[in-house]
Amino acid sequence: MNAVNAHPKSGPIMTPGEVRKRIASGAHTGTTANLAPEYVQGNLVILPKALAYDFLSFCHANPKPCPVLGVSEPGDPAIPSLGEIDIRRDIPRYNVYRDGVLAEQVTDLDGLWRDDLVSFVLGCSFSFEEPLLAEGIPLRHISEGTIVSMYRTNIDTRPAGPFSGPMVVSMRPLSPAHAIRAVQITTRFPSVHGAPVHLAEPGLLGIKDIEKPDWGDPPGMRPGEIPVFWACGVTPQAAIEQARPEICITHTPGHMLITDLLNRHLAIL
Amino acid sequence: MNAVNAHPKSGPIMTPGEVRKRIASGAHTGTTANLAPEYVQGNLVILPKALAYDFLSFCHANPKPCPVLGVSEPGDPAIPSLGEIDIRRDIPRYNVYRDGVLAEQVTDLDGLWRDDLVSFVLGCSFSFEEPLLAEGIPLRHISEGTIVSMYRTNIDTRPAGPFSGPMVVSMRPLSPAHAIRAVQITTRFPSVHGAPVHLAEPGLLGIKDIEKPDWGDPPGMRPGEIPVFWACGVTPQAAIEQARPEICITHTPGHMLITDLLNRHLAIL
After folding, report:
1. Average pLDDT rounded to a whole number, residues A72-79
2. How many CB atoms lie within 10 A of CB A49?
3. What is the three-state SS of chain A?
4. Which residues of B touch A177 (CB under 8 A)?
5. For residue range B24-47, what is the model confidence (pLDDT) as tens digits?
6. Which end of chain B is more exposed for a tag (fewer CB within 10 A), N or C?
C-alpha cells in the first residue's frame, strides 16, 4: 500500500479491491464510512450450513429488512458475484455470537473458519442514502455524525425455521416534501430496503417515544418534520439472537463488507 | 341512441365517442362519474386568444396543479389529439364566467362560441384514482359518494401574466402504508397531477382545520390515517377568477370532457 493512503480521506480514492486489501492486511480496522464512495457496502451474516436454508428462507420471506445481495458456497470464503472477496479477512471487524450471545470481536476469522460456514451479504441503507444526499435531501444522522435511530416495531417478520421476531426499522426525520421524494428515490432500490415501510404516526408501529430509539442515537425531531421509517438490517440480527445458533459471525456495526457493485447499478429504473 | 343506454349503468359499456355523442345530443346532462370507465376525463378551460399565451405559460409554470392534456387552435372547436371532439357540445354542462364571476350554466356553447376562443383540457384526479382503487387502496369520498376535500394552501403558484394565486390541493385520508403506495402509483402519472405535494401535518400548508375544507365535503379522518395532499385542478379556476377575463368558459365541476385516451396510457412507466 502507498503511504499516501494511510488515511484514506487524505489520499487518492481507492478502488473497492484496494480498500479490501488494506483491510485484509490489518492496516484498517475502523468503520467503512466514507471508504470507496459510490460502492455498495453490505451487512454480513455467517451461519453453519445446517441453518443456511432456514436463514435464506427467512430473508426470502422478509425481503424488505433482509435483502440478499450475495451468498457463498458452504465452506468457501469467496463470493464472486460481489468481487474478489475473502470473507475471512476483508471486513475490518467481526462480531462472533455463540448461542445467540456476543462472545468476542475479532479482526479476521483465521482461527474460526470452518468448512460448513455459509456467508450471506445483505443490502444496507448506505446504498440508498447516497442518492438521497445526491438529491439534496439532508440526513440528520450524517450531517451530525450520529448513528441513525432504530426501533423495534409491532410488525412481526414472517418466521422461517428458528428465525422470527419483530421488524426493526431505521428512521430519518424529513420534511413532508422530502419524504415524498424519498419514497420515489428509494423505491428504485429494492435490494437495499427499498421504499419506506411507514411514515408519520410512530404510535401505529408501537413506538411510544420517538426520541428514545432502541438502537442508535435520538433523532432530535424538529418542527415541520415527520418521521420516515425504513426496514432495517438489524432485523436479521435480532432474529439470529432469538434463534441462538451455536455460532454466528456478523460484521461489527459500521464495519461493512465493501463490494465491487456500484450503488447506482442497484437502481431498478 | 339505443334505449338500453338511457341509463348508462344499465346498458352495455359505451365507447368514449358514443358517450360524447349522447352528451352532444342532450340525452345526458348529468355528471360524468362512472361513464366510459378507464378513459381519461379532463377539466376544460376556454379563454379568448388574447389570454391564451399567458394561461398556457401559467400551466407550464405550474404543471402539478395544471397539467395540460390538449389544446385547440383558436376558434376551432376540435381537439384531435384527444378524440373526435366538438368542444361546443361534448360536455354535459358548462360554467360561463364573465369578468371572473359565474354568470350562467349552459348545456352547449352554440350561442356563445367565438372565433377567438381557445380550449385547454387539463388532467384530472379521476385518472389516478382508477389505479389507486385497482391496487386496493380505499378512497373514502368514492366509497361514501361524497366530494373530495379541497383546501386553499399557503403555497403560491408561479404567476404568469394576470394568472396567479394559491395552489389548491385535494386530500385523501390514507393509512401510512397506503400513503407510501399511493406516492409510488401516482408518481407514474405526471400528466394527471402526479405524486402528492404534501402529506401529514396540514398546518404546514396553512390548513387550520382539516375537517373544514374550502371546497368539497369534510373528509372524516379516522384514527390511523394521515392526510395525503395532491395538487388540484381547482387551482387554475381560482387563478382565472382572480384574473377576471371578460369571458371564460369551464366545465361544471363533475361534468368533464371524456377523451379517447386510456388512463393506463398516461403512466410513464
Report:
1. 96
2. 14
3. CCHHHCCCCCCCCCCHHHHHHHHHCCCCCCCCCCCCCCEEEEEEEEEEHHHHHHHHHHHHHCCCCCCEEEECCCCCCCCHHHCCCCCCCCCCCEEEEECCEEEEEECCCCCCCCCCEEEEEECCCHHHHHHHHHCCCCCHHHHCCCCCEEEEEEEECCCECCECCEEEEEEEEECHHHHHHHHHHHHCCHHHCCCCCEECCHHHHCCCCCCCCCECCCCCCCCCCEEEEEECCHHHHHHHHHHCCCCEEEECCCCCEEEEEEHHHHCCC
4. 197-198
5. 999 999 999 889 999 999 999 999
6. C
| Shortest Cα distance, chain A CAs vs residue B242, angstroms | 27
pTM greater than 0.90 (yes/no): no
Of A196, A204, A226, the CB nearest to B201: A226
Q: How far is CA B76 from the centre of its chain?
A: 22
pLDDT of residue B11: 59
Q: A135 at the B interface (CB within 8 A)? A: no
Chain A residues with CB under 8 Å of B190 CB are: none
Classify B56 as helix, strand or coil. Answer: helix
How much is the ipTM here? 0.83
Q: Kindly give, in sequence order, each residue whose CB lies less than 8 Å from that of residue A248, ignoring residues fewer than 6 positions away.
A: A45, A46, A47, A96, A97, A100, A240
On the question of pLDDT at A184 being above 70, the answer is yes
DSSP string, B124-159: -THHHHHHHHHTT---HHHHTT-PPEEEEEEEEPPP
| Residue A33 pLDDT | 86
pLDDT in tens, B141-151: 999 999 999 99
pLDDT in tens, B102-139: 999 999 999 999 999 999 999 999 999 999 999 999 99
Query: What is the phi-psi region of residue B100: left when phi exceeds 0, alpha when psi lies from -120 to 50, beta otherwise?
Result: left
Q: Which residues of B touch A187 (CB under 8 A)?
A: 184, 187
What is the C-alpha to C-alpha distance for residues A253 and B5, in angstroms, rounded to an integer? 67
Tell whether A183 is within 8 A of chain B (Cβ): yes
Q: CA–CA separation, A58 vs A55, rounded Å?
A: 5
Is residue A29 within 8 Å of A93, Cβ to Cβ? yes
